[in-house]
């Protein structure tokens, strides 16, 4: 007789019996169960994220008693360790296993530990002039700025962050080699208090020494020194190094700039400032296409040489061809002086435009000094220019003028390309002397204020007010750049570009008075796309009695494109039924 195994007999009974026995065998290994967390709301997310028993990938509870005990012990250890990082050092953890298929993890965190007394002590061997008084003042300031004052919850993450912030505050100014001697937080679970004591060795006062420049290849050896805003012997401050680095990074001749010091206490009296640079390619040619409702389609090309004759001079030359304006220019920029604050440039240019029936041809040569101090930029420009104007249906005239103009701009905005908070102030003061019989002497003032206000999280209100006045016996013989016309994008929308001014023949020419204002509200649906509504009003005239505000209003779209901000507006002028399209976009390649 053939013997028959148990397994073969089961298989012969049928697949249903086999499946049933397979499920029973699996059940002996573990039971499908759920685990419910019973804990205060403020700690539930933390426990659900890190406690193994609560994680979604755990779907079975072991059957064996020792395995279950090991799992519960692990859960208790994890809960206690996690709550300790949040300042709960005396939690009560229970696991209700009365229902094998539904466990309850009950957590009572207990009283949260708060910071008690904070004791921060400094050790210093610095005996330089004023060191004791400075250290006392710094001690008091750091005590006030300590990120975990008495009474605040004691969290491990905050404790580590507060210590690092304290050390960084010392290292950022004067004490570059500061280090912890000891730092401890003694926790009393019964009192729910954490007593903090920190001892810091400040090390010596660091003073700046000479520059150590590396990476220069083709630029002149003194190129970096021309941008230097640091003074030898001054007390080390990290923010001063960052300001120097930012100044260098603005130089187009440099691709990468890193300014740093090695905090060696042995060289603290005159620590070298290490400047590592990488030079940018010296020659650049760029082409671009663009369009605007003011001057039409545009094509342009520019050439830049960043190290002309090996002297670090920057040559910038370009041609711009627009439908209603064409220009050719060449500018030479010298490296800065006076700790990078002053920069001189020389330029010549040709410009031709045909706007609102007025044809202008200008040839000019000039010198400009640019002065930068923080957010303030000042430009002083003097130039000699020859200008010819031809209004339609009026007499042609030309004249030579020597002009001097002082311009100053304050920029205090959160983002230069897309400001949402802050302001821009600008004023210009200038004048000119006539160098030909038809030319006229004059003086000129112009001012503008633009304020950006964030309303809520998605709305930006922009207010602009501008005005100008040219003092002269008559507008005849005054260059058009020193007179005023209004209308168009960034002026009074709803009207054509420079269509508000003085009527001469069938053309619009510049007047001696300007006044304009604008109110615009942009709602940003997403960070890069918004809808705008606006009201503009203004005029340009030759006399006060001829001045009359022209108002335009409308709406438009805003888009922060990769090529730059794009604005498309529909504006209706006062008493006009048909809207005017205003837009501007440029693409460089």
Question: Helix fraction?
Answer: 10-25%
Q: Would you tell me the structural class of the helices and strands?
A: alpha+beta
Largest sheet: 16 strands, antiparallel, barrel
Proportion of residues in extended strands = over 45%
Instruction: Give the number of helices.
Output: 8
CATH topology tier name of the largest domain: Porin
CATH class of the largest domain: Mainly Beta
Whole-number count of domains:
4
Describe this structure in words.
The protein is α+β, with helices and mostly antiparallel strands and 589 residues long. The protein has four domains: 33-108, Ubiquitin-like (UB roll) (Roll); 114-201, Ubiquitin-like (UB roll), CATH 3.10.20.310; 208-279, Ubiquitin-like (UB roll) (Roll), CATH 3.10.20; 283-588, membrane protein fhac: a member of the omp85/tpsb transporter family (Porin). The chain has helices spanning 6-13, 15-29, 41-50, 65-85, 131-145, 156-171, 223-226, 238-249; strands spanning 30-32, 34-38, 60-62, 92-96, 102-108, 114-123, 179-188, 193-201, 208-214, 254-260, 271-279, 283-292, 296-308, 313-322, 325-333, 342-355, 358-373, 376-391, 397-413, 422-434, 442-455, 459-471, 502-504, 507-509, 513-526, 529-541, 550-561, 564-573, 580-588. The strands form six sheets. The protein has a 16-stranded antiparallel beta barrel with strand order 12-13-14-15-16-17-18-19-20-21-22-25-26-27-28-29. Helix 1 crosses helix 2. The longest helix is centred in the first third of the chain and has 21 residues, at 65-85. The N and C termini lie far apart (92 Å).
